Amino acid sequence: MKRTEILGRWGINRLIEVAKGRWLVVIVVGILLGIFAGVAIEEKAVVIQVDGQQVTLRTFKSTVGEALSQTEIQLGAQDRVIPDPGTKLKDGMQIQVLRAFPVQLIVDGEVREVVTPPATVQEVLELAGIKMGPLDQVSPALSEAVTGGVRVQIIRVEEKMMTADVEIPYPVDRRQDQNLERGINRVLQKGRNGLERQLVKVTYENGKEVKREVISSEVIKEPVKAIIAMGSLTSVSRGGQRLNFDRAMVMTATAYTYTGHNTATGIPPYVGGIAVDPKVIPLGTKLYVDGYGFATAVDCGGAIVGNRIDVFLETERECQRWGRRQVKVFVLN
Q1: How far apart are CA 28 and CA 35, in angstroms?
Q2: How far apart, in whole angstroms, are the C-alpha atoms of residue 50 and residue 63?
Q3: Considering the domain boundaries, does residue 20 fall inside one?
Q4: CATH number at residue 198
């Protein structure tokens, strides 16, 4: 092979290698210039709203968090930044710093405090790790926004099913009886309560029962009604006399004699004057007492309470013979 031919081939290859190296340098330099030019172009102006103020910042940083780190704004652990600190920064972007504040939570018999940025009640509960049961109630509502000074109250609600046996009150059948004096009743048939078995839903709020609802019921024992005869007679015969009266009562009667004191009405005791309970028979009422006769309520005493009277007799012996007895007392018209 000729020398000139060998040299020609070597020279061409060398020239190609040199050319490649120069182009590589040109390309690298071009890329670097493009990067520096791009950085210079990407300076951004952003507006930061914090603590009631608005701050304009010009920065070459690439994320919201990096831009904030360039300022003197101190972020608390629970402060919220909008958009998120990891968000890519854009020219003209609005950045908000929302300061956290304490909120009181009343739950399970305790008062707890949680520091939170502006959020809904539901978000605050999630932050505090409080789980709501399906029936639990919360005030304010879960969707409402929480502000400083607000108390969030959680009411734990629980429902339980139980059975209960409940008495059914017996009905009363009252019948007028013309053979009985008005005011006197007679039981013809004694009433008996029935029994009902109920399925009850009991609602508890914070462990305390607040409501009972009967879901279903079954009568186990039917009630038996009471039958009562009610006197309607207003006139009776005593000692050949016709007595017209307003009402009659069966009362326990005892007797007393002179004590050396006047009666409660200020007059001396006398036969025909009796002691009564003024809440049952007002003083001054005209009466007829079976076994004693006509009488007037003129006295009272500490032992004479309710359906009791004390008739006056002249002697201690008469009082002993009288003893204690049940009598009919007629309140005369």
Answers
A1: 11
A2: 18
A3: no
A4: 2.20.230.10
Half-sphere exposure of 26 (CA within 13 A, CB side): 6
* Burial letters 258-277, b for 16+ CB under 10 A, else e: eeeeebeeeeebeeebbbbb
pTM of the predicted protein model: 0.54
Please name the helix (run of DSSP H) or strand (run of DSSP E) that holds residue 170, with its range, or none: none
In a domain, 185, yes or no: yes
Per-residue H/E/C for 40-63: HHCCEEEEEEECCEEEEEEECCCE
Q: Give, for all 333 residues of the chain, the pLDDT tens digit.
A: 444 443 344 344 553 454 455 544 444 444 544 444 444 458 899 999 888 889 889 999 989 989 888 888 888 888 889 898 899 999 989 998 988 889 999 999 899 999 988 899 999 999 999 999 999 999 999 999 998 888 999 999 999 999 999 999 999 999 999 999 999 999 999 999 999 999 999 999 999 999 999 999 999 999 999 999 999 999 999 988 999 999 999 999 999 999 899 999 999 999 999 999 999 999 999 999 999 999 999 999 889 999 999 999 999 999 999 999 999 999 998
Q: Are residues 263 and 223 in the same domain?
A: no
